[in-house]
Amino acid sequence: MSIHIAGAPCCWGVDDPKNPYLPPWERVLQEASQAGYKGIELGPYGYIPMDIERVQAELLKNDLSIIAGTIFDDLVSESHLGNLLEQVDEICSLITKLPFSFQDKEERFRFSPPYLVLIDWGHDERDYKAGHPDQAKRLSKKEWNRMMSHIRTIAERAWKQYGVRAVIHPHAGGYIEFEDEIQQLLKDIPYDIAGLCLDTGHLYYSKMDPEQWLRDYADRVDYIHFKDIDEHVYQQVMGEHIRFFDACAKGVMCPIGQGIIDYEAIYKLLKDIHYHGYITIEQERDPRNSDTSLRDVSQSLAYLKNVGY
């Protein structure tokens, strides 16, 4: 088993690039390097600039590689497709031109990074029902099929034009979140079009067993996100009318090893399924609390190394 651990800007509260409280992206890269990471995600479109020379200089300074770019946007609306394809072009043009030194040349993964992570997001009616499969509105068949068509178009463009593998990330508060939606997604999007990025924290948040899902869908998983959940805060926010990222601002996500998810069991599972690939640690938070990000991402990485990763 060959696993590499990476980080993500959301550990510094970077989810909305328009949030006025975001830390400078240069600081995020510097602290990720200080914590011991060798790879990091690009974060939401618009946070790290689409400037190859500036970004490359900062990556080299901090001995980091970009593991993935992300489209974190409305994948449903017909009017959005043009904008989504512009994001594909800009993100893939950048990440494929940046130096990548995180992967050992002798290793052979199904699809090599950097990946393009696809996340549906931007629907108030679902955001407030994150984690509640029994209450959340579902898309009509027509709307669902349109989203699937958009995903296929995005994934094919990324692969055919840039050689970038698209991976679909079920996300709390989006229209691909719950068990029935992920299972339908897997029927509608063949593995040769796009893989899965399963996120342990989002699975648990949305009433699924992360260990079971990683085992059952091992043949569809190209990339994994790790989060941990503070069970006390989780039970509290499940009883509130609250947006997903407002729940994160309350501390529902915690450093790996300090929450409810059993990462020693998941390590054994990943050995059983012979997972070879990349795992990115995430801990969404309010960016106004990013002064503790370096401490937390350091603790998360140290914990995973201590249990064998």
TrEMBL record:
It comes from the Bacteria. InterPro entries: IolE/XylAMocC-like, Xyl_isomerase-like_sf, Xyl_isomerase-like_TIM-brl. Residues 29-305 form the Xylose isomerase-like TIM barrel domain. This is IolE protein. It comes from Bacillus inaquosorum KCTC 13429.
